[in-house]
Amino acid sequence: MAAQPDDKTLTLKEMVRRAGSTPRTIRFYEEVGLIHPLGRSPGGHRLYHPSELEKLQLIGDLRIAGFSLDEIKTIFELRQRRHDAKQASGEVSKILTEKIDLLKRRLGALVQLKEELASSVDLWQTACADCKCPPGEEICEACADIDHAHLPRTFRWIWNVH
């Protein structure tokens, strides 16, 4: 089906550039029914409505958050599959509430890990950067520049100081 490009339609190349995606990813999303082109230009280029760009960006964000493609497709299609909005909204709410709880747990773990890594980097950039021990003979366990009682676990295990 040939569609006439206008100022509002986007080409595959524009979708890739604006979403930070790849042509392969967008074509795959088309194959699985997540993204829908308007058609093709007379030259054979895929054309998209701007709303598909927003959907593509949302799909990317959901993927980063840990949603599978099947989960994304399910929540996008749930309204059409159910007989009424009440049933569909209940199911979508349940699915998303479970994901929100999982994201909260992940965020907590990521914040803790970020803080540990930052503390470890600080140690490597301060105490270890000025280490006077000959290479291969570092005595990190006895280093006076390190507060051994409060070492982040990332430092202990990466640097093998227990």
Can you tell me about this structure?
By secondary structure, this protein is mainly alpha-helical. It has a domain of 81 residues: Multidrug-efflux Transporter Regulator, Chain: A, Domain 2. The chain is built from 6 helices and 3 strands, in the order βααββαααα. Helix 4 runs antiparallel to helix 5. The longest helix is centred in the middle third of the chain and has 41 residues. The radius of gyration is 25 Å and the shape is elongated. The termini are far apart. The mean pLDDT is 90.
In short:
By secondary structure, the chain is mostly helical. The protein has six helices and three strands; from the N terminus they run βααββαααα.
Radius of gyration from the alpha-carbon trace, in angstroms: 25 Å
Q: How many strands appear in the DSSP assignment?
A: 3
Q: Could you tell me the strand content as a percent range? A: under 5%
Helix content: 55-70%
Topology-level CATH name of the domain at 1-81: Multidrug-efflux Transporter Regulator, Chain: A, Domain 2
Series of H and E elements: EHHEEHHHH
Spans of at least 5 consecutive residues with low confidence: none
Distance between the termini: 66 Å
Roughly what is the average pLDDT, rounded to an integer? 90
What's the CATH C level of the domain at 1-81? Mainly Alpha
Q: How many DSSP helices?
A: 6
Largest sheet: 3 strands, antiparallel
The order of strands across the largest sheet is 1-3-2
